[in-house]
Amino acid sequence: MGLGGRNAPFVGNSNAFRLRSLYKCACLSVHSERGDASRVERGIAAKLEAAADRSKPNAINVLKKGSWIMANSQMKLVLMGLAAAALFAGAPLAGAQSITSEQAKQMLDELKQIRQLLEKQQQGMGNAAAPPDDKVNVTFVAGKNTLGKADAPLTLVEFTDYQCPFCQQFHNGAYPQIKANFIDTGKVRYVSKDFPLDFHAHAKRAAVAARCAGEQNKFWEFRHILIVNADQLDGEKIYNHAKTANVDVPKLRACVDSNKYAKDVEKDMAEGMSAGVNGTPSFVLGRVEKDKLIGVRLVGAMPYNQFEAKINEFLEQKAAAK
Predict the structure, then answer these.
(1) What pTM was estimated for this model as a whole?
(2) Taken in order 97, 100, 106, 109, is the CA torsion positive or negative?
(3) 216-220, long-range: CB within 8 Å, 24+ apart, which pairs?
(4) Do β-strands 282-289 and 146-147 pair in parallel, antiparallel, or remain unpaired?
(5) What are the structural domains, with CATH classification, of the chain?
(6) From CA 73, how far away is CA 115, in angstroms rounded?
(7) Rg for the chain, CA atoms, rounded
(8) Tell me: the pLDDT tens digits for 177-190?
(9) What is the residue-wise DSSP string for 135-189?
């Protein structure tokens, strides 16, 4: 289970951004402590090795498989992906679509950094037992960035990274239906929380910018524009998007430059970690009791019907408890 959970799509002939993003996001999305690699070790690893043994033009296929593995596996497969990528880092990728040898080298560098992060993560884990399930019971403060009725029977918290392709997939896919059928109807309160990943250079700045837009009552409009343009957030591009959202750019720039919301972003990240979040998008669905959010953690850009089923399950439980 990785950034896209068990529904993460296999990476096809997409552009270099999507492939690189999978590699970058992997640093916090490998659920090594939960043993999820067992389902991919049989077959996928063999295919990776077989592709590495074939001709150099197959390098792109190795990299594609490696990116899928990076989002779904343990250290063992991470190291295999690193070794496979190393075979082709200096080779021209003949027949590759939208991937150059320079981009392959970049991915190799990222893989090395991911490996280092995973090694540190595993060292820090020691012999601690993994949680038996995805149940969550954490201290909760909704904050300003909410949609829907404050007293809705359920709360759905999204932890997002503005550069993560699966967050983009969620907002282009399931989110509009969730909003129409549950948020706008008063059944679910929706809460936005930030969880920028270390390997996304512009994610934290984008999170700060979205909060700054909130000062102009444009948080949700600007947030959506940033997420669906996840590969266009560097430099001045954020401010170009601000114009699309009718955000006052000079005011936004001054706010972003002040970095006044950086601590709020870090607070969101701490809350996410306390809820077991280690990849994006991740969600906590449940009920709020006093200062506690009690429910379950959901991982990935799941299709709408899976969100719908889980939300209805919780609504039925709440109705039965009355």
Answers:
(1) 0.65
(2) positive
(3) 216/247, 216/248, 216/251, 216/252, 218/245, 218/246, 218/247, 219/144, 219/145, 219/192, 220/145, 220/147
(4) unpaired
(5) 16-125 (no CATH), 135-321 (3.40.30.10)
(6) 12
(7) 20
(8) 999 999 999 999 99
(9) EEEEE----S-EES-TT-SEEEEEEE-TT-HHHHHHHHTHHHHHIIIIITTTSEE
Contact 62, 84 (CB under 8 A): yes
* CB burial readout 126-144, b (16+ within 10 A) else e: eeeeeeeeeebebebebee
* CA angle at 39 for the pair 38 and 40, rounded to the nearest 5°: 95
> What's the one-letter identity of residue 125?
M
H helices of the chain, in order, are 16-25, 38-41, 44-53, 59-70, 75-88, 101-125, 165-172, 174-178, 203-214, 219-228, 237-244, 249-258, 262-274, 304-321
The dihedrals phi and psi of 296, each to the nearest 5 degrees, come to -135, 155
Least confident of 45-49, 166-170, 201-205: 45-49
290: left (phi over 0), alpha (psi -120 to 50) or beta: left
Q: Which two tokens stand for residue 184?
A: 């706008």
Both tokens assigned to 261: 């919301």
Residue type, 164: C
Regarding predicted confidence, which is higher, 20 or 200? 200
Q: Which two tokens stand for residue 217?
A: 């009552």
**Residue 182 carries which side chain, given as an amino acid letter?**
F
Between CA 195 and CA 148 the distance in angstroms is 22
Which helix or strand (DSSP H or E) is residue 259 part of?
none
Where residue 143 falls among pLDDT bands split at 50, 70, 90? confident
Q: Is 51 exposed, middle or buried (0-12, 13-18, 19+ CB in 10 A)?
A: buried
Q: Percent of the chain, pLDDT > 70?
A: 58
Q: Which residues, other chains included, contact 172 with Cβ-Cβ below 8 Å and sequence gap of 6+?
A: 228
